Every structure is written in C-alpha cells, then in structure tokens.
C-alpha cells in the first residue's frame, strides 16, 4: 500500500478510506499487504482528484461508479451500432 500511495501522491489512509467505502477491493498478498491493479490505481487517482476539488468522499465514489457505468454503456452502444452497420447483418 505504501508504494501505491507514493505513486499516487496520497496518504495510505486515503487508500484505506477507498477500501472502507468499497470503491476498491485490493487483492492481498500472502503477508496480508494490499495489492492494487493498474485499474484500481486509476480509480484511486480519480477519487483523489475529486476529493481534492472539494467533493465529499461518498459523493466522489458515486461519481466514479456512474462514470464507469456510463463508459460501459457507451462501449456497448458502439459495439451494437457497429454490428448494425455491417453489411448482411
């Protein structure tokens, strides 16, 4: 966790708060240390950006979840449009 916090320029407590808020659920090493994926680090960076701008943590978590859902919906929409535009489909 210390390395992840250092990479992001945040305190370890901030990463713990994201875990407590259930925004991130890092894997655990055999020794019990938190291990974050690149995706989780991007989410943590976005959360920090929102909180640093004055957004309460709970609201920042909700915003990130909604942004993620919107991105997935757009991806699905694009995929469906591409299928629809294929000749002979």
Structural class computed from helices and strand pairing: mainly alpha
Overall outline:
elongated
Biggest pleated-sheet summary = 2 strands, antiparallel
Q: State the total count of DSSP E strands.
A: 2
Task: List key phrases describing it.
two-stranded antiparallel ribbon; single chain; mainly alpha; 89 residues; 4% strand; elongated
How would you explain this protein's 3D organization?
There is one protein chain. This protein is mainly α and 89 residues long. It has helices spanning 2-8, 12-20, 38-52, 57-84; strands spanning 27-28, 34-35. A two-stranded antiparallel sheet has the order 1-2. A hairpin with a 5-residue loop joins strand 1 and strand 2 (34-35). The longest helix has 28 residues, at 57-84.
Short structural summary:
The chain has helices at residues 2-8, 12-20, 38-52, 57-84; strands at 27-28, 34-35. With 89 residues, it is mainly alpha-helical.
Q: Helices and strands in order, then pairings?
A:
Layout: H1 2-8, H2 12-20, E1 27-28, E2 34-35, H3 38-52, H4 57-84
Antiparallel strand pairs: 1-2
Helix pairs in contact: 3-4
């Amino acid at each position: 966790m210390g390395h992840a916090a250092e990479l992001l320029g945040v305190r370890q407590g901030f990463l713990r708060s994201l875990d407590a808020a259930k925004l991130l659920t890092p894997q655990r090493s055999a020794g019990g240390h938190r291990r974050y994926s690149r995706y989780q680090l991007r989410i943590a960076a976005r959360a920090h950006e929102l909180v640093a701008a004055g957004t309460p943590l709970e609201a920042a978590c909700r915003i990130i979840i909604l942004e993620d859902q919107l991105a997935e919906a757009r991806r699905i929409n694009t995929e469906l449009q591409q299928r629809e535009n294929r000749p002979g489909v």
